[in-house]
């Protein structure tokens, strides 16, 4: 089969038009008309992931984070990123990225995160700004826990759920009760007002910076920052989804998730 067959099916699930303006989703490198036999699913496209793709015989890398957030200024192969592009071309590996369109998709990234946290009765958190998004296409989710807990206890639960060695708790009231939780995968700091507006007791998101952290505390919002890499939840989920589609459509492909941890941070 061709790459385009899998891509066309995926874009029914999470159309590129749902991506935020300027988000470079879609084909990153290669050709939609290239044959595909084995798919490697990953959060990030890094040199070590490319080496893994070559080792397992994958000819298609499907990533959540676009490989090319910024255009190359030159093709100097002394630059590791440029060398990675050259290696991909040399081995005829096609790369596709699905970012904020997957974040907004029903039964996509943020539903997976909400389910992992045990949230019930979830609704969308932030309306998508994608060009073709409808009012029910939203980034983030907000919902209720089955049983109330405390901010600190819930933060410790997040460490276990997301398999992180550490996280940052932004709160002056760690003993406060938690029933309602908002979550947004990736860098959700700019959207904390939406969590407040929907009466969340805790907001779970990544990449909170210093001054917004002060603003969140001043606003009375408890925030748990387990990092950006929690979006790696997409790896088993997308793998299962693609395997299901392959079975339904008799696609002659195999699909596997990367075995690598691409989180750049280590907690000491």
UniProtKB/TrEMBL annotation:
Assembly, per entry: Homohexamer.
One Pfam family in the UniProt entry: DUF34_NIF3
Amino acids binding a divalent metal cation 2: 64
One Gene Ontology molecular-function label: metal ion binding
UniProt GO cellular component terms: cytoplasm
Gene3D superfamilies: NIF3 (NGG1p interacting factor 3)-like
Source species: Levilactobacillus suantsaiihabitans
UniProt keyword annotation of Metal-binding present: yes
InterPro entries noted in UniProt: DUF34/NIF3, DUF34/NIF3_sf
Top-rank taxon, per record: Bacteria
Family to which this protein belongs: Belongs to the GTP cyclohydrolase I type 2/NIF3 family.
The protein's name in its UniProt record: GTP cyclohydrolase 1 type 2 homolog
Keyword Endoplasmic reticulum: no
Positions bound to a divalent metal cation 1: 65, 103, 228, 231
């Amino acid at each position: 089969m061709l790459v385009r067959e899998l891509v066309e099916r995926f874009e029914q699930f999470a159309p590129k038009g749902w991506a935020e303006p300027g988000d470079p989703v879609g084909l990153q490198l290669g050709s939609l008309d290239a044959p595909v036999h084995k798919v490697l699913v990953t959060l990030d496209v890094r040199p070590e992931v490319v080496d893994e793709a070559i080792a397992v015989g994958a000819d298609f890398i499907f990533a959540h984070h676009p490989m090319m957030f910024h255009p190359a200024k030159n093709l100097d192969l002394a630059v590791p990123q440029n060398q990675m592009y050259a290696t991909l071309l040399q081995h005829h590996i096609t790369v596709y990225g699905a970012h904020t369109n997957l974040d907004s998709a029903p039964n996509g990234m943020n539903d997976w995160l909400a389910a992992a946290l045990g949230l019930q009765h979830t609704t969308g958190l932030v309306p998508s700004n994608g060009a073709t998004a409808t009012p029910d296409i939203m980034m983030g989710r907000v919902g209720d826990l089955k049983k109330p807990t405390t901010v600190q206890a819930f933060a410790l639960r997040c460490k276990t759920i997301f398999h992180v060695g550490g996280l940052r708790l932004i709160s002056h009231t760690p003993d406060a009760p938690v029933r309602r939780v908002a979550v947004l995968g990736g860098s959700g700091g700019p959207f904390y007002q939406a969590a407040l507006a929907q009466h969340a007791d805790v907001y779970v998101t990544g990449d909170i910076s210093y001054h917004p952290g002060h603003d969140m505390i001043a606003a009375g919002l408890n925030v748990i920052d387990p990092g950006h890499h929690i979006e790696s939840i997409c790896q088993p989920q997308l793998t299962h989804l693609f395997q299901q589609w392959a079975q339904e459509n008799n696609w002659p492909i195999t699909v596997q998730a990367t075995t690598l941890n691409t989180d750049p941070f280590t907690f000491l």
